[in-house]
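The instructor's notes for this session suggest beginning with a concrete chain rather than abstract definitions. Hand out the sequence below and ask the class to guess, before any prediction is shown, which regions might be ordered.
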Amino acid sequence: MSRARPAVGYSLTVGAAALFAVNGTVSTLALEAGIPATRLTALRCTGAALALLGVLAVVSPRRLRIDWREVPFVAAFGVVGVALTQFLYYVAIARLPVGIALVFEMTAPVFIALYVWLVRREQVRNRVWVALLLSLSGLVLVAQVWLGGGSLDPLGVAAGLTAALCLATYYLMGERGTADRDPVALVAWIVLLGAVVPFWLSLAALRHVPPTTAGIVATVEPVLASGVAWLWVEQVLTGWQIAGGVVVLTGIVLAQTARTAPPTVVPEAVPS
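After discussion, reveal the predicted structure:
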């Protein structure tokens, strides 16, 4: 077994987050060019799946075997955890700045911490409440609710938060699914550099850093996405929204470390 190198893990995670961040702006341009969110979701998911299946079929075909009893789980995992997360994210970035949409989506760890505490009855650290308070307070700042009901599109906000729930489902189902399985032009960028390569980088990082650590490092994605959107398409955030994003990310970091007994294997976040 190769020796874990944390610096490599951090670099791979940041690299994946950077590609996901750029993909957010590229996807926004694709949506503005008239590609429907449903088609963009299908292109990205199908393209990534075909690429990954092709590679595995050549280098390790045994990893593609699946038992018929696993089909319902895999189908639900793919539809809710991957396809719906992608679709709702595209709806969100079509109506919100990319960085803000990602802040909403990345509240998933807060939902996970609440789920394992309320449903699984796992013990969580008291910091989960601080995380929840920070996340909600940050979202209030991001939405600027004092401006006549908020300055953000309600459908975009709803899509972002629902994407967070789907992403939380991805993590929780993935925790179960990977216990005994091995996780594994404009549109061309979205499929290859926006999905396949970041997938590989994020999974490779888990050889060197724990999943929780990788998740915390990955919270740099909204920051990078906001920077890319500002430089590329001049999406400018207000001071309150930037401050709110920082508060939300602080809450996310606390939520990532709230579980007293984190799982040994959890898949990296679905690319955004």
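Then share the key points. The radius of gyration is 18 Å. The CA atoms of residues 30 and 202 lie 24 Å apart.
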